[in-house]
Amino acid sequence: MTLRQTKMFLPTLREVPSEAEIISHQLMARSGMIRQLVSGVYTYMPLGHRVLRKVQQIVREEMDRAGAQEISMPAIQPAELWQETERWDAYGPELMRLKDRHHRDFVLGPTHEEVVTSLVRDNINTYKKLPINLYQIQTKFRDEVRPRFGVIRAREFIMKDAYSFDTTREGLDQSYEDMYNAYKRIFTRVGLNFRPVEADAGAIGGKGTHEFMALSDIGEDTIAYCDSCDYAANLEKAEVVFKAVETNQTEEKSLEKVSTPGVKTIEQLVGFFGKGADSFIKAVAFHVDGQLVIALVRGDHEINDIKLKNMFDANVVTMASDEELIAHGLTSGFIGPINVSDKVQVVADIAVQNMVDVICGANEADYHFANVKPGRDFQIARTGDLRNIQEGDECPRCGGEILFARGIEVGHVFKLGIRYSEKMGAKFLDENGKEKPMIMGCYGIGISRAVAASVEQNHDENGIIWPWTIAPFHIHLIPVNVKNDEQRMLAEELYEKLQNAGFEVLLDDRPERAGVKFKDADLIGIPLRVVVGGKAAEKQVECKVRKTGEAQDLHVDAVLNYLNEKSAELIAECQ
Ligand code: 9G3
User: In this structure, are 447 and 478 located in the same domain?
Assistant: First the structure.
């Protein structure tokens, strides 16, 4: 491996590529790790590939330790398999499809449930051969409508995907726990600041799922976590604890219709009535599997459509269109639960039922009702947890305070149950010769995304600061002036010595000015640096830690000891 920069394909950039919005994309491009081919599609250059390979190596070690077996499945998958699971029609333009020369339909694999289930179906049919966990590290294809954030949301990316097959639910729970624990070891070793969070199983069904989130302000997902216990859930899933606030029961007022010309939003209502947002009912009309539903939450809360979907165990939940509103006698901007047609179902978040003297839309343009009393003026068909958790809410586990953070999803573990095995006939004969569908789990890690997440978490204004365990090299060895024999010779001597000691050394032997070399070294972010400069004649070199900036002049004979000491400290940060 050419570890000399004069030979290495390592084009660093001073300027930021225009399409790079976030720091990891900017730094990965500028440091010569990646180059964009087209939107959402990237080449990993030698420096970036070395980091990818280190992350993959850690993943392999932990997956093998957990008893999973590595395979490699095809990216090209016949449409027939996706028709068996009815996903051929379920997915839209995100699923990359192609025809072969015989005009047969194929997909470029975005994931491999169909392929792996057909593989196991055709090769295992007895409980004696289960449980089994198969995994691969492979390129996935998803035609994102708007690729962004560099490799974080790319159209082609590297995923480790694993699939477990068990004979019982308890077996699946064990497989899931094994993967959950392996993921904690993996992300710890990769040096990420991460949280496992409870997530919603979403379209792929199955019960129980966790996402592994790398904390980052550019993360697309919001995490609700407790400041006192390890509860954490993504916003879709986080459970809300309902605390019935004691309302000083005022005398009951009769319902009143109020003219509110052009007053639609909660903010406008607050201004118009001079009351807090918690005095109003927010009503939103949804299409839930074809049924028109009005969901009610308190004015200072947000409706969570995933929770609404789960309340009805529905497949599709969309906002009702204006046409549908009119067809059901509802008026956009003035929707309310009072006197609605019996074709409309009214459901409400827990907090609504004991609101008093509230104000809601009158289902008539420019009118609201005041002094509304739920249960007297309108009926609630279903009540449940329908709102997004908010910062300051109580932790559903320990009563602590809920805080928000943003995260980048770098891992996701699912209990699939028989969702795929039943449809595809992946069955086994149990001890009594009875045929049963295998119980599956699936487990993904975004390898390329984890690299970008690491850069998001580990950089400063000068560039990347690699954690030791995934750094492309360990030592950046920089002779300041390669035309100076003493400096060049000493650097070559150290190069051999450090490599023989087991360090991965990148030698900057370019005939560049010192400033250029140091700027590039800061950008590339190799953890430890040895500079051979003006004191080479006295066998003195400068050693520097990229992360802290601490530097020390040392005699060459003391360098190895120093590097062993510092590397041990840096390794300890990833354990
Ligand atoms: C598709 C397309 C995009 C997709 C899927 C299918 C996400 C799809 C969910 C999963 C679940 C797990 C195994 C590894 C871990 C994640 N996006 N998912 O099924 F056709 Cl276009 O991939 N699969």
Answer: no
Beta-strand ranges (E) seen in 365-502 are 367-372, 382-384, 402-417, 427-429, 435-437, 439-446, 459-460, 463-464, 475-479
Ligand 1 mean position to 310 CA, how many Å?
20
* Atom from ligand 1 closest to the CA of residue 95: 21
Whose alpha carbon is nearest atom 23 of ligand 1? 111
Residue 174 CA to ligand 1 centre (angstroms): 22
pTM (2 decimals)? 0.90
With a cut of 90, say whether residue 82 has pLDDT above it.
Answer: yes
Cβ-contact 458, 191 below 8 angstroms: yes
Q: Domain range holding 428?
A: 53-203+411-456
Average pLDDT value for residue range 375-404: 95
Q: Whose CA is nearest to atom 4 of ligand 1?
A: 110
**Would you say the CB of residue 95 lies under 6 angstroms from ligand 1?**
yes
Q: Is residue 241 included in any domain, yes or no?
A: no
How does residue 356 score in pLDDT terms, banded at 50, 70 and 90?
confident
Domain end point (choices 423, 456, 489): 456
Helix residue ranges per DSSP H, 286-363 = 305-312, 322-327
For ligand 1, the distance from its centroid to the CA atom of residue 256, given in whole angstroms, is 51
- Indicate if 446 and 483 belong to the same structural domain: no
pLDDT band with cut points at 50, 70 and 90 for residue 399: very high
Task: For residues 525-540, give the mean pLDDT.
Answer: 97
State whether 507 and 427 are in the same domain.
Answer: no
Location of structure tokens 């805080």 = 403
Q: How much distance in Å is there from the Cα of 186 to the middle of ligand 1?
A: 21
Number of domains present in the structure of the chain: 3
